[in-house]
């Protein structure tokens, strides 16, 4: 047998090999196999990034601050007018003593409820529905990704934009008030106002997030899920506005106390999505409300509901909607 010619040149490189994998050494690996980590975070990051990339989201976030901006302008205007007065201190205190600062957060969050609903639709209406339409659940759940990873990822991916839209204007106003309105009792009136807001805003965002995911899981198109959620929101809001009308009719009468309002009106006064959020805000901040912008008014506000019942109802609805989404998410082909 002849010796091989070691000096023979190797064949020219013809490009990448397109045949079977030549290196099969991985087949003999018998070490630990670590599963991929933070699978839910990859889903959450992708979902939230889509919302944060939309210009409309940031426009709505700014619009959600309109009450706070108007309040800042009014305070600035009053300060400028009173600075030219012969007795600015007494007159200023007459104006600012009527302002209940925690109620300004109540009004700011109340007037922004419709904007928060639109942000929720933008972030979550198609979160699961569009995956149903594209049969993407077959891809998600065929990978090393459990149903829990998928639901948690989608929930956090919707929660983050909704929370940012609620928290950003609120805490910007809080920081501005803490730096500018200290002499008017902004911090001393309720030293726990900041922690209360930190407890309130995540609950409101979680409530909206859970509801929209429950609706999204029931449809194959994000638009249909959005229409259904918006329809429920508006119908329940119309019902509570009817209760507001009845309440105003009673309290605007002469010599009629708020205690004479029927119990039915008091029970269903907050019976809507935005009404529950407003009731929760009143209960956590510890206020029954006061006139807007410190403008005097003889018409009282509806008393705040008890914290435990309204919190229990919000948690029950949130858990129910999340369980619905859990049951609806299945790795099966959806025929549209």
Please tell me about this protein's structure.
- The protein is built from 14 helices and no strands.
- It is mainly α and 336 residues long.
- The protein has one domain (39-328).
- Helix 3 crosses helix 5 (101-111) and helix 6 (113-124) crosses helix 10 (193-216).
- The longest helix is centred in the middle third of the chain and has 34 residues, at 147-180.
Outline of this structure?
This protein has 336 residues and is mainly α. Helices cover 63% and strands 0% of the residues. Helix 1 crosses helix 9, helix 2 packs across helix 9 (147-180) and helix 13 (273-285) packs across helix 14 (307-328).
Number of helices: 14
Mean pLDDT: 84
Radius of gyration: 28 Å
Characterize the biggest β-sheet. none
Number of strands: 0
The residue ranges in which pLDDT falls below 50 over 5 or more consecutive positions are none
Task: Give the terminus-to-terminus CA distance.
Answer: 71 Å
List descriptors:
63% helix, globular, 14 helices, mainly alpha, 336 residues
